[in-house]
Amino acid sequence: MLSKKSYILYLLIIQIFLILLFDQQNISFPFHNNETQHLSQNITHAKTTYHAQIAKRPVFTFNKTMLTLDLKQKTHQEKSEHVHGRVLLTIPETCHITQKSTILFTGAIKEPKHFINPGGFDYKKHLQRQGIWGKAYVPSCKDITIINKTAASLTDGVRQKIFRTIQFSPAKNKDLILQLMLGIRSITQENQIKIQDAGLSHLFAISGTHFGIMCALIFILITKLTEFTPLLYLYISKQKIAALCTLLFVVLYLSILEPRASILRASIMIMLYLIAIIINRQKNLSTIILSAAFIILLFSPFSLYDISFQLSFLCILIITIIYPKLLPRKLKEWLHSQSKMIHVFTHALFLSLTLNIFLTPLILYHFNTASLNGFIHNIWAIPFFQFIMIPLTLLSLCSILLFPSFASFILIIFDQSLILFLKTLMTLNVLSLPIISFYKPHTSHLLLFYIILFLLFIKSKLKIILPLIFLFLFSLGHTFYELHLSYDFKITQIDVGQGDALLIQTRHKNILIDTGGQPFFDIGNNVLLPFLKHSWITHLDLVLLTHDDLDHVGGLSGLLGNIAIGDVWINDTHSKKPFFQKLLAEIRDHNTSIIVKSNYENFFIDNNTSLEVLATAGKKPYKGNNASLVLLMIHKQFRALFTGDIVKTREKDLIQTYDNALKADYLKVSHHGSKTASSSDFLKKVQPKIVSMGVGKQDRFGHPHTQTLTHLTNISSTILRTDQHGACGVVIKKERTTPFRTKE
Fold first, then answer.
1. For residue 576, what pLDDT band results from cuts at 50, 70 and 90?
2. Which of 52, 88, 682, 723 is deepest in the core (most CB within 10 A)?
3. Could you tell me the pLDDT band of residue 537, with boundaries at 50, 70 and 90?
């Protein structure tokens, strides 16, 4: 007969399998009916007035409010119609609105930013897993009209009281206090960078440690208080009284926190532990862990993909299964004979080292880099939080709710402790270790690594583990072969939305032509870097910037310092655009050479590949888009032409200069398929078999133009475009040329 733990484990495995199957089959699409139109089928990007209801508890910080809305009706050009679908509305200020209130707002609903590249974070799918199909923005709370305001619930009232007390307190680190007390992601970018670089982000996520220490303090306090009421012992033990009171605290505290995976995991585990005390059942930790995971996934299946869910449960499993078996027996015996201070310090040291080592693959998978500084900083930071910050969080919470006259004084002490924490952090930064920037593990590598790891510490039979180790090594080798050795030459037009970024790979070199770029969004860090790390590329030998438009150069800033770069080529227009001058200064600050290119030059990349900068003899200097570097890359017999954003006048000059020498097998279509370029005469000279273009989905410029598509169709070119195919391009394997697409 199966044990309770085995039964829950099998149920959990089946549950995870069904979630993965459900997600892969894309069954999470909305239900449609004949009476109302679903938002996903009609995102027009036009400003429209919407009638909506607030579906979830609003999330607000000191400078932003995010509302999850269920749409009911829309009005555009005096025409009203029913519509349904869920939208995320962002307002750049604090708006205290209650859940289930009905509102009117006017704005353009857009699809979430979505880039279809291997290894990239699918933000669109991330929101769809929450039932959200669009994003909207209004500039202030005044742009929302409340039609039907629901009364604030008790928990909403408590949250608002805590928020307002922190907001109007004299504390300097309000963002950190709010995060520690309510679990709201409110940390400023400056503090976020400091904490991430130190590897201490986990301390500011309310988790098992926070809940555990708070509950332990309350349990001990209630146990001591019940000693003054001995008559109660006749009916119930003081441990059960303390457990009941602590359980009530957990339920109440959970109701005002943001429902994140780490918070849910910690609260459910503690509630199950306390219930076991109350009903006199055995407290089996592994059963509690499995039960908590099962309950979370039962009510929120797609939490499985949440980094906080993965890190939270993995940390617990490492602490409970691996860490106890890593410490040598003699060390454990020695620790028992030492003082509590040495005992705590030693455990903090070894636990920090263990977590840093075994969590690194998962952190690399999600964030592309991993900081080793956590090993140094966790030694002092974990005890600091356990003995000072978490008790102060509980004390501040109690003072705000029970003794408001003392709240300001307690918050000042809380703030001073945080100032001490940040000062210590900056002082110890001189001891900083390097940040790991290594190959990003793929999903199969990650799963096999952790399965093998836990099987080793569970003492499974060698005949089970050895085949898995072989499979793991084979998977690593196969991935390296596919990414670097299975082809001779490869061009990838990376999906950067409206913009250009093309990666050229030979057996020995990696070259990036343009880097994409958008205002207010870091293409380099959020799109290019994940793609490069997924492709196991840790350096770029050459970056070529065809011209100074933001959608061609803006992504380079996010790459600098995060990936090794050899030289950067620019054209000779001496652009005075402020953002481009700032970019050049950043390049120099990272000790990267800037090489100016203008007239014809031939450059050998390797023995089989050359790169030519095409010039137009006898012409005046070009300006704007026409100043783009035009590049011809030749790999053996294969010819690829890259045209930046040149328009028809420059194309005409190129025809006069090079005539039939312009012929190429592949063409990067100029100016994203605009009608200002790709003239019929130019395309007839180039005669490309395969063309690609960087186009944003529902691009406001109307790219690519139907005229350009007609010209390309007339010469029988295979057309690849990032808005439809995601990352796409051409690969040469053993003299065979094949186009490829990420999305068919």
1. confident
2. 52
3. very high
